[in-house]
UniProtKB/TrEMBL annotation:
Full protein name: N-acetylglucosamine-6-phosphate deacetylase
GO molecular-function terms, A-Z: N-acetylglucosamine-6-phosphate deacetylase activity
Keyword Hydrolase: yes
Family as reported in the entry's similarity comment: Belongs to the metallo-dependent hydrolases superfamily. NagA family.
Domain (Amidohydrolase-related) ranges: 47-365
Enzyme Commission number: 3.5.1.25
Enzyme class: hydrolase
InterPro entries to which the protein is assigned, alphabetical: Amidohydro-rel, GlcNAc_6-P_deAcase, Metal-dep_hydrolase_composite, Metal_Hydrolase
Organism: Stenotrophomonas nematodicola
Keyword tags: Carbohydrate metabolism, Hydrolase, Metal-binding
Length: 371
């Protein structure tokens, strides 16, 4: 049993900023705003809900597709940057390789070890995508069937599934996938605006790394990204300021009410420049970018604390930026006890200084060692 503890700071609660004490064991037990503190606001730490990253491939030199204990290593790496919950994300690969990754993830989902973020489930990013919009995915795509998905879902719970809606019977599968509790996202797609709209009407819930790996915004031939801007409530976006131009990020922020941010982090995250695995492919980290040998971007080396700072640099206030890294991803998954500071929510917290640098992380009441 975790003993009751307290932290003092400027708290971003579910109803806005307050200055006071938060009391918690595994969950938040009370929020006390009566504490008298003579310090200026900039001298008092900020306490935000822990970040929730719904698209994570790797970190610390390991890739989710390796299986085994890779997911645990990834969860520990990202926890040190304020991520308190995440989805382990797969790559397009042969089914045996995907099964190996899911078996490894199943262990991490079932047990949160010391120093780990909570692994909530799986984001199955491949193989049900378009050969025309692979991005950094290998050309091992297949058309989905419900039998395929149920077989994989039985190994480890799929929370998010990326689908190219224009392929075969994919659009017809969306209602059944949604009925399994899977959030269907449109991505790695060569589909049209009409394909995107029809998929949303069928029950698709979001978009995978908006603008990247999809048809775009063309006023004569609008694509999947246009459908997102016109109709989406939710979409994920990589705010490393490399995948998407700042102007396009601002456009999406105005258009999509609950745009939320992900890292799309690879094994290169937290590592020096060099060569790393991304599924069966090799990627190169240099000057903060992760690329294939062709020069194409291939995931990122982003962490969620840096994502927060990047959003603030674009003009978002801290509360808005925080919502896009915590509350909106939780809402998207239908989770009401994470991604917010409220009584009875999990004690998932990130403590920041005035420069938005991480000074403490708490996952389900447990302190995370930062070094």
């Amino acid at each position: 049993m975790t003993p009751t503890r307290s932290l003092h700071g400027r708290l971003l609660t579910a109803t806005g900023w307050v200055r006071g004490d938060i009391h918690f064991d595994r969950r938040i037990t009370a929020i006390d705003t009566a504490h008298d503190d003579p310090r200026e606001d900039h001298e008092v730490p900020l306490i935000l809900p822990g970040f929730i990253d719904l698209h994570v491939h790797g970190g610390a030199g390991v890739d989710i597709m390796q299986g085994g204990d890779a997911a645990a290593t990834v969860a520990r790496t990202h926890a040190r940057h304020g991520t308190t919950a995440l989805l382990g994300t797969t790559m397009t690969a042969h089914e045996d390789d995907i099964v190996r990754a899911l078996q490894g993830l199943a262990g991490a989902i079932g047990t949160r070890g010391p120093g780990m973020a909570r692994v909530l489930g799986v984001h199955l990013e491949g193989p049900f995508i378009s050969i025309e919009r692979l991005g950094a995915q290998p050309p091992l795509v297949v058309e989905a069937t419900m039998e395929d998905v149920r077989r994989l879902h039985a190994i480890a719970p799929i929370k998010v599934l990326t689908l190219a809606p224009e392929i075969g019977q994919h659009q017809a599968l969306i209602p059944a996938l949604s009925a399994l509790g899977i959030r269907v996202q449109l991505g790695h797609s060569a589909g049209s605006y009409a394909d995107g709209v029809a998929a949303l009407q069928a029950g698709a819930a979001g978009f995978t790394h908006l603008f990247n790996g999809m048809t775009g915004v063309d006023h004569y031939h609008p694509g999947i990204a246009t459908a997102a801007l016109a109709h989406a409530e939710y979409a994920e976006l990589i705010p490393d300021l490399q995948h998407v131009h700042a102007g396009a990020i601002r456009t999406a922020l105005r258009a999509i009410p609950k745009l939320y941010c992900v890292t799309d982090a690879t094994a290169a995250t937290g590592m020096p420049d060099g060569e790393y695995a991304l599924g069966v492919q090799r990627v190169h980290k240099c000057l903060g970018c992760v690329r294939l040998a062709t020069g194409s971007l291939a995931g990122s080396a982003l962490t969620m604390d840096q994502a927060l700072r990047n959003l603030v640099s674009l003009g978002l206030d801290v509360a808005d930026a925080s919502n896009r890294l915590s509350r909106y991803p939780a809402d998207y998954l239908g989770i009401d006890d994470r991604g917010r500071i409220a009584v009875d929510a999990w004690a998932d917290l990130v403590v920041l200084d005035a420069e938005l640098r991480v000074r403490g992380v708490v996952v389900e009441g447990d302190d995370i060692a930062l070094d």
